[in-house]
Amino acid sequence: MFDLKNIINSVILGDCLEVMKKIPDDSFDMAFADPPFNLNKKYNNYKDSKGFEAYINWCNSWIREMVRITKPTGSILIHNIPKWLTYFSNILNRVAFFRHWISWNSGGAPVGKTLLPNHYGILFYTKTADYNFKFFDIRSPHSICRVCKSFLKDYGGKKDQMHPYGPLISDVWTDIHRIRHRKRRDEHPCQLPIPLLERLILLSTDEGDIVFDPFMGTGTTAVAAKRLGREFIGVEIDSNYVEISNRNIEKACETKIGNCYVSIYLNKIKTIRDTDFEQIYELGFLKNNNSYLKKGSKIKGKKLNVFKN
Ligand SMILES: C[S@@+](CC[C@H](N)C(=O)[O-])C[C@H]1O[C@@H](n2cnc3c(N)ncnc32)[C@H](O)[C@@H]1O
């Protein structure tokens, strides 16, 4: 068995099933997996084309291991296309507890097909059924019209009752896009955007918690964990991708405003903890992030007393 102290904040080169077998029960606060989708994607070495039964059986094995090594207060999150998530749910429903099916519309253009598959799913399960598991309210900024600066959404006629910064995040995410520009991505067919992982980490872990990822790819989960003051352990079967991960992790710096870890991408705040709003606001950091905040805005009936917009 591994002693976690010896592998903390590292990406282990190897087969995730073999590595997970050496990890003690109840080790991690969050386990996130973005496995190959079995869609014949061009990876460096890995052949993404198992037979149907072989793929499901393989997924069954690593999903059960992921649950075993997650703490009783922890969460298990799995990203994939809806087709495979229906099978994964069937496995997870036997060994963990369903919380959410997050729909991530990553911003593809609707051309070429009717009912174009245009979203990915992220299954969110907890290891235990009771409410000791970690789960935090998070917010993203309102979408604002660039010209008139008012909300783009109607909010069903309840605009006046909305939080001035932005709504609590729902289970449909449309504001995080795939990495489009070549200069911002690595040589990997399925690199996820960092703000996606940061949102999941803010939702389900505390500062200092340990995040595990059995399919590390380019290191997105580790980078997000490091930026948010969390620890990580990852596994990746391809040595080229381990190298890319290590490079990305090395470059990553904490993204903190005052005492609060926040998800920031291209100088815009993407996600904050609800409990951090007032501190971030009072430090004047929402200036360029949400022009809707107006003098006299109130939170829970209390007037915000510092206004720097
Ligand atoms: C969909 S990608 C993950 C991408 C990652 N989320 C990112 O943002 O870069 C899946 C990764 O799993 C790796 N992989 C495939 N089989 C594996 C195994 N048995 N153990 C560990 N890694 C594996 C592949 O090499 C590939 O990099």
How would you summarize this macromolecular structure in one to three sentences?
This protein is an alpha/beta fold and about 300 residues long. About 25% of the residues lie in helices and about 20% in strands. The radius of gyration is 20 Å and the shape is globular.
What does this structure look like?
With 309 residues, the protein is α/β, with parallel strands linked by helices. The strands form four sheets. An eight-stranded mixed sheet has the order 1-9-8-2-3-5-4-7, with helices on both faces. Strands 6-13-12 form a three-stranded antiparallel sheet, with helices on one face. The model is unreliable at 291-295 and 305-309 (pLDDT under 50). It has helices at 4-7, 16-21, 52-68, 82-95, 194-204, 220-227, 239-251, 277-282; strands at 10-13, 28-33, 70-80, 97-104, 120-126, 138-139, 172-173, 210-213, 231-236, 256-257, 260-261, 263-265, 268-273, 298-299, 302-303. Strand 14 and strand 15 (302-303) form a beta hairpin. The structure holds S-adenosylmethionine (SAM).
